[in-house]
Amino acid sequence: MSHSDPAPVGSPSSPSSPSSPAPAPSSPDLGRAAWAPGFAAVALDNVTREYPYAAHHATAGPDDRALPVELHPAFATSYDWHSSVHMHWLATRLLAFGVPADLEARITAVLQAHLTTEHLAIEAAYLRATPHYERPYGWAWLMRLAAEVSASEVPAIRALAPGFVPVVDVLEDLVTRWVDGAAHPVRHGAHANSAFGLLLVLDGARSLGRDDLVATVSRAAREWFGDDAGWPFAWERSGHDFLSAGLAEADLMRAVLPAAEFGPWARAFFAEVAAGDAVLTPTTVRDENDPQQVHLFGLDLSRAGSARRIADALRAADPEDTALADLLDGAADRLLASGLEASVGEEYYSTHWLASFAWDAMEAREHA
What we know:
The chain contains 16 helices and 2 strands. The longest helix is centred in the C-terminal third of the chain and has 23 residues, at 295-317. Strands 1-2 form a two-stranded parallel ribbon. The chain is 58% helix and 1% strand. Helix 9 (194-208) runs antiparallel to helix 10 (211-225) and helix 13 runs antiparallel to helix 14. Strand 1 (53-54), helix 2 (68-71) and strand 2 (79-80) form a beta-alpha-beta unit. This is DUF2891 domain-containing protein. InterPro entries: DUF2891. Pfam families: DUF2891.
């Protein structure tokens, strides 16, 4: 079983030498149309690249030596499992948006080969057998992928939706058990962040009509974050963050609270934020070959998307008081521009995942 057919864009040999990097636009254009072809090439390269791969599989004994593609026949590419999931999501989004015909045909063929009912059943069984694996980040992206496939405007992709039903069944059970059994959220800026995971699960559950899961996530969000105020944004930005814990939380609450509740909650939560604060300014990456430092490019991209969505929600809540919305909007394009080049650059530690966050931020910018 192999993910190497159709062939990837190039033939990489190490994390620091990706195949055929897609050229970024030379202009400062931040629109999706300018970047879609390059992102499509990156997505295709990633979803067909088997190695290097960080499996994160807890071996059960000396004979437990399965290859990644045997453990994860759908998602054994793009350096690790969660990145493979969200690169498959990016590929499906790009097909719906529109990409060059040659890339469209190749991406469609890869998605049809990977996301089969048989492969997804194996992925669902693995998640059920290892209930803490990829919690909650990988779960969240898988829920997002399931929702995108099920609602896709591309018939060939929407035809894959039935295979995701058992996957979503497992995810609903895992998420419910997790939030029911946890007294506190995880608030840091990396994969285990609870707010980011809950937001993607919530959006996916709504799209898929999983009303019980929507209620579970909404209840957890209110319990974990409903009383928060005066978030200390000045304490943020560890050297490997790719999420702002504060903006991720506010982005979640935007999706949970009615407008009449969100406006007052957000103004109390953002009480300490002012123009020029670090949370609104791009990061500094001194070593673009450092796999931890390049997370900071993702931090810029994720903040750009969150800031735009939060600003939109604030304007909807109170069209007369736009000071905070203007502050967030004013930062969003600078943050987006800061992380874009790395998403189609020369370093695989960046290109195996960043474009997903860039596209998400661009969609927020265009209200897509």
